Amino acid sequence: MLFYYVLFLLSAHGHNGPVRASYPNYYFPGAENFWQAALQSGLTPSPDPNGGDWAVGLFNFPTLSDATTRTRSHARINHYQQVKDSRPNYHILAEHTVSKILFKGKRAIGLEYLPSTGGERLDVYAKKEVLLAAGALHTPQILRLSGIGSKQFLKTFGIDSVADLPGVGENFMDQGELKVPFTFENNIFPNSGALDTNKTYDAEQRALYDAQKQGAYTIVRTLSTNLAVPPLANTTSSWRDILATAKSHDPTDITLYFLRALSRGSVKINSTDPLQQPVIDFRTASDPTDFDLAVALFEKEKEIMSAPAMKILGPKMASPYDTASKEEMKTLLAANMSPSNAHSCCTAAMVPKEEGGVVDTEMQVYGVKGLRVVDVSVSIPITGILVD
């Protein structure tokens, strides 16, 4: 029996798309202790983190897996392989790189591409539109190499300007993380590590999965089954000031994700060679308020790990985190925080052009015709969500 119900809002989800999402049908017993500890620390369950205003609190999160087959659900199997035979003009060209978008005047008419290892450049032409989905790092690279970006910046590379959009590659956001090491005096069996250390348990769970698609193998490895995203007002009594400013003894890490940082970075080209990777400037914590937010989150983590429900596990935070003052914690954050959780976004933002926007509400790139950006680059950081 589950110790809590999986909550979700039907209105927050699609129902007819080919790629499926589902919740696991198995939970390691120790997850209950973390769940109860979060409740004891003042967090409340969220109806659904995907439901707009509900991306805070305590919740389970779905993964891209088919609830029937309990296998990964993704576009190749669930979409491309289903339609490729009936769509002879539908091709996926792997291990190739787009070098630039081709224009006739202000209209996008196609793409130039080449093998990712180098070689001859070829062209492909579009009858209707060019849809760009190269991700938050490479979409701005392709746009700039194609003449879309700050005219002054492009001039330094000898690139002719097609559309002067200074916002291309700016407003870059990622969600940093800090892994805080803990040791535990006790552990609850079974746990995720048992799949690696207990051959009997691993064999039982694999047999259960193969026969019935149930058990521990329905959980994505390296992921937990629940997540706590405390709202700031529920994390620290100083929230108003912050906003105004703007296995037994086996070690493990409790990861803090900074979902709603205020700092912004950039993604820029440093060469006209499309095979050269862009220059990423995370500018992590360049807004000092982010340190205040991170310290508040760290303090909340200590509260959760000290809650009565965690006592049976005996968690002990490792040095120097265990004795760090708030000011010392800022120094530790600066030295140990990872700037990226691979949740990059926002480098071709969907905001008005005069405010640094790159695309309009129809995802059409300002200043040109026949070109849309259709990936996470167009996002703006409107809430503390996991950008996937």
From TrEMBL:
Q: Which UniProt keywords apply?
A: Signal
Q: What's the source species for this entry? A: Colletotrichum cuscutae
Q: Which family does it belong to?
A: Belongs to the GMC oxidoreductase family.
Note the InterPro entries from the entry: FAD/NAD-bd_sf (IPR036188), GMC_OxRdtase (IPR012132), GMC_OxRdtase_N (IPR000172), GMC_OxRtase_C (IPR007867)
Species classification: Eukaryota, Fungi, Dikarya, Ascomycota, Pezizomycotina
- Quick one: signal sequence residues? 1-21
* PROSITE patterns assigned: GMC_OXRED_2 (PS00624)
Name a single GO biological process.
secondary metabolite biosynthetic process
Q: What is this protein called?
A: GMC oxidoreductase
List the GO molecular function terms. flavin adenine dinucleotide binding; oxidoreductase activity, acting on CH-OH group of donors
Identify the residues that the record assigns to the Glucose-methanol-choline oxidoreductase N-terminal domain, covering every copy.
135-149
